[in-house]
From TrEMBL, chain B:
Pfam families on file: BPD_transp_1, BPD_transp_1_N
This protein's UniProt keywords: Cell membrane, Membrane, Transmembrane, Transmembrane helix, Transport
Organism expressing this protein natively: Actinophytocola gossypii
InterPro entries in the record: BPD_transp_1_N, MetI-like, MetI-like_sf
Transmembrane segments: 12-31, 100-122, 129-153, 173-195, 235-257, 277-303
Name of the protein this chain belongs to: ABC transporter permease
Location(s), subcellular: Cell membrane
Amino acid sequence: MTTPPQSGREPDTHVPAEALMTRFEAPEPGAADATDTTGKGKKASGQLRDIWRRYKRNKLAVVGLVVVAFLMILAILQPWITPYDPMEQNLLNTRKPPSDGHWFGTDVLGRDMFSAIIYGVRLAMIVGWSVMFLSLIVGLALGAVAGFRGGALDSLIMRVTDIVLAFPALIGAILVVQIFGNGIWQVVIALAILSWPTAARLMRGSTLSLRESEYVEAARSIGASDTRIVTRHILPNAIAPTLIYSFSHIGVAVVAMASLAFLGIGVPPDIPEWGTMIANAVPSLNVEGESHMWVFPSLAIVVTTLAFAFVADGLRDSIDPKLR
Amino acid sequence: MAKFITRRLAHAVLVIIAATFLIYLGLFVLGDPFASSGEKTVPPEIQEALREKFGMNQPFFMQYLTYLQNMFTFDFGIDFEQRRDVGDMLAAAVPATARLAVIAILIEIVIGLTAGVIAAVSQYTFRDVFITIITTLGIGIPVFVIGIGLRAGLSGEWIFPAVPRSFTVETPWWQEIILPAFTLAILDAAFIARLMRGSMLEVLRADYVRTARAKGLSERKVIGKHAFRNSVIPVVTYTGVSLGVLLGGALITETIFEYQGLGFLLVRAIQQHNNPVIVPIVVFAVLTFVVLSTLVDILYAYLDPRIRLH
Amino acid sequence: MRNKSVLLRAAAGLAVASLALTACSQQSNTGTDGDGGGGNEEPSAGYPEVFNDEVTEDGTPGGTFRLGIVEPAAIDPYTAYESEGLLVTDNLFTGLVHTTSSGETVPALATEWSSNDDCSEWTFNLQTGTKFHNGEEVTSASFKRGWERVTAKASASDVAYHFDQIEGYDEMQAGTANQLSGVDASDPAVLKVSLASPSCEFYLRTAHTAFSPVPEVAGPGQNEAYNNQPIGNGPFMMDGPWQHDQGIKLKRFDDYNAGPKAYLDAVEITILVGDDAQQKELDGLNNGQFDWARVPPNQLAVTREKYEPQDGWISKKTFGIDYLQVAVTKPPTDSAKARKAISMAIDRPSIIEGVFDGSRAPATAFVPGGFQDAYQPGVCDACEYNPEEAKKLAEEAGLTEGTELNFQFNTGGGHEQWTAAVKQQLEKNLGLKVNYSGVEFNDMLENQQSPDSAGIYRLSWGADYATPGNFLQPLFSTAAIGTDDPNAPATGDNPGRYSNPEFDDLIKRAAATKDEAERIKLYQQAEQICIGEDLAAIPMFERQQFRAFDSSKWANAGDMDFHENPKLDVIYQK
């Protein structure tokens, strides 16, 4: 019988305070609801069918998944489905409300807002998924090493995460961008740098608890190498919380990029990004007939964030309902 | 317990040192500390003066010490744009940010706790579901969308003056603060509500609550006295951390509402590449955050008997 | 399973629907708002000028004038240089001479001035018995003090360069002297100046607020108390210190005797914060909070409609120009033909229609129309849109299709629209491959100055002093390159490295010509060379400024001063 995985709550990696550190975090809707009514406690890996079954039960999560899929399709097909080139300006036709020719109206440079918003979807998906994968890979690697090896290496890695986590939300991202300059990829790196520590901690936590489990001992006793143990036994079982966190972090990364763009930092101003569009719409906030300029990008952000949040929530509930 | 506290404090000091070092590295060494924007460059004389002040002509380690010394004696030099003493600029902005933070915290505590308690007590009823939906939106909709929406929708005569007034016209301070405070409070209030609800649900099921009920205590007393007090602990820690973040300056919200606190100053300084202003604000933000997180952790350990006895 | 296939089908359906939403090829974004989009009948001439520079003098003291600005960089004359700061400094100080709103330079604190024959020695006779706001007397020493304050090395002033003709300037800037040796203030009523580089136009420079007198209490340049609350000798004084990001209050100086006293009791200058500050100025005026406002470009038509009938509208060509700076010594722009081809390929009128709502006029000269005697409209013959001729010239000049051209502008100034339009036109009409980029202003400056600089840059120039020479010498003379070495950065205001000895000669002669009319003729010839023949820079738009104000309340407010600000010293309440 295996013991349910702990969440690594040791006093000096005090999850309550630090897990709440980054104000980016859109904390999981429904998190406080997680009461385990199924009481199954089954191991998650390899039970994809079970996961899917549980997932489907959460209606919101299903809706979220549909929306996410839709966004991905939009992102991939963007070059073909946007009626206009999203970068093309038409200076004779600026700030126009929605019409036949321009379903979402035009922005401050006369660009078609519908095309621009869809381009924004593509941008958001690229940045969101890139940040997710980067932070996941780094976090998994370092967290596994820290948890498995322990000792000085563990301390070192944990100290580094503490230091990175000491920078509140946007300030850390701004600092990195200041140093590396403006550009989408610099923003991605900045956000990934800020996201990997929590992923690493989660991985470390699950690795720690699994390290002592019986089947690992069994594997060791038959002489399996460390690498083999980590990759074949620990990783697949420990990955769940980290995966869930990284997935829920996609929406956060999208909002973070939009925030930076809104402030005019990091994201080049001529790129049609939702945050930039909203910033350009500020002088129009109280002007008649120009509300489309901020409403549509705002809706885009909200839809994206909520969709990913619901999916992450659903993933959490379905992979292990007891997991917190 | 004492051991825990010392360990935690030492840990915090280490983090602060490392973080300030990184800031120093980033802004003085890796970037160009005198990059400026606007229609002019930083004159060589000003560069010289700042080099003096920050000891940039000294060996690397001495530079870092000088920088630390300057930070902790609040000697920040003059800014690039207007040649003003940066300390003066910050002194004006800190109280503004503090006021905003405190008011936001008050609002979110009141709303969050109330909603959380109501939801827990009437679990699965319409009220509960309604609150769950609202809090989902509150958490899921990003701060700056909320801010923009509020500014677009609600600015008017007395909430957020949409039309500028001559600066000599007395504008009550709360008019400027109410919308940004609300914007900041919404996310936290939603989170607090959920925390409170979950925590309270757990507590309401606990043995000692059942005992209290069995003893014949009124429901109100049960909730008010026992359940509430014990379930509020995670909320306290969350609020503490939140305060730490807010004190560092709410960049987005202050920018949206043109509220002249630290966050607003920082954003403008970044756009102007005004390094002397950027450095102290970033250091301050990190500092307040680490200090408050540490205090919160110590407080949590104190309140949570499980940890205390560790 | 059932749900899975539903999902898959839904996804497929969405994909198909998305594809069906579009035409196979993307449409081109060329819609207009329906009216006014048709063919332009004639080139736009900008909004007609509307202003009233007559000054009536039958006002009575009283009233508080309110307006909004953005936070100035400085209001202390030792370094004030941009229009927000100058609004305050111009009214706090009275200098030797004063430039009127029509560009004429008239006596102020100096009753008269003269120079020797080669314009190397100047003598200014000062009014006596005038005082600073704190009671201290204004003498020639006050001027010397102020000038040394600006030119001192430690001050790191942004405007010290205006003094560069004066003997002793280099030593002050190097820090080897703490006195301007070329300024003699031994006679309190007479200021004598010796110039190391003689110029017959030196007196014009002294109109700039950098040349203001200052009281003893001013101290060194960096003096926060004085920087925030300068004590001057002008018709207004500070009523309390500068409240950063909040506002500045001025009040009338009742003991002013260097000229006519002001009528206004007070001026309330509110500092507006945020990207929409200009919009806020207008909102403030429309709501009765302000008495004067600048107008954002997209509000020009509606504001004009509202205020012109009430006589509350100002539209004036001012002393400035928007142009494209060119790297003159590097291909592909290293021949006059190539530059003219580029210029002819730009359709200025339709940019003005689309971006500026028809409110400005295309430039056909470099020296702006404000200089009525020197103005030569049409001297830039390549400023007229002619795509066929442009193509022809381009071929001749080797500016063939596919040639790369760098085009850079500075962000944050609202220039995105028109520069993007220029880019599109160059690509369309000449088939060039335009490397278009927007960077921070001082990055752009660096790029312009670099020895590898090539292509064109967006720039603008406004008059520092009221002479056409100010549009020629600092931008096109060889000395203004700032270096002889083609591999070193060009640190002057002529980073394009245009160098024409004929032009230099004309400029030199003009600087040595005492008679103004003669000078102007020489300047005109010089402009004929650098623009007409060589097109060393590509003029784009004349600078035209618009204001609206509350005419029911205020008289003498229907004009802008030389720095495009309201003439606070003559405005009075009706």
